[in-house]
Design goal:
The protein is an all-beta fold and 126 residues long. It is 0% helix and 53% strand.
């Protein structure tokens, strides 16, 4: 089992920036991919960005391309989400998730991920 702890959420004005962090512990050596998801009130959880743990290949939702950047630091077992040019519609609880070795990874598929963080609130005011 992999434990994930997010940090870095908060309140920011439209146009501002935030950086989220997600630290992995436990069986972190088994991670093959990690993703950031978000869920706004009344909406389904959706993928924001994902990254392959070894190759570093990335995936972004169309709504955040050019504004958000996902990166990982393998030595620190940490994945980051740099969010720039934030918009009110980016307001949501953001979750970090991981896929462990032995599972097939579909970056945008919630069901691919077997470990989840507790979530961190991001609020963008207009």
């Amino acid at each position: 089992q992999v434990q994930l702890v997010e940090s870095g959420g908060g309140l920011v004005q439209a146009g501002g920036s935030l950086r989220l962090s997600c630290a992995a512990s436990g069986r972190s050596f088994s991670i093959v991919g990690m993703g950031w998801f978000r869920q706004a009130p009344g909406k389904e959880r959706e993928v924001v960005a994902a990254i392959g743990w070894s190759a570093g290949n990335t995936f972004y939702a169309d709504s955040v391309k050019g504004r958000f950047t996902i990166a990982r630091d393998n030595a620190k077992n940490t994945v980051y989400l740099q969010m720039n040019s934030l918009k009110p519609e980016d307001t949501a609880v953001y979750y970090c998730a991981a896929v462990s070795l032995g599972r097939r990874w579909y970056p945008r598929n919630v069901g691919s991920y077997d470990s989840w963080g507790q979530g961190t609130q991001v609020t963008v005011s207009s």
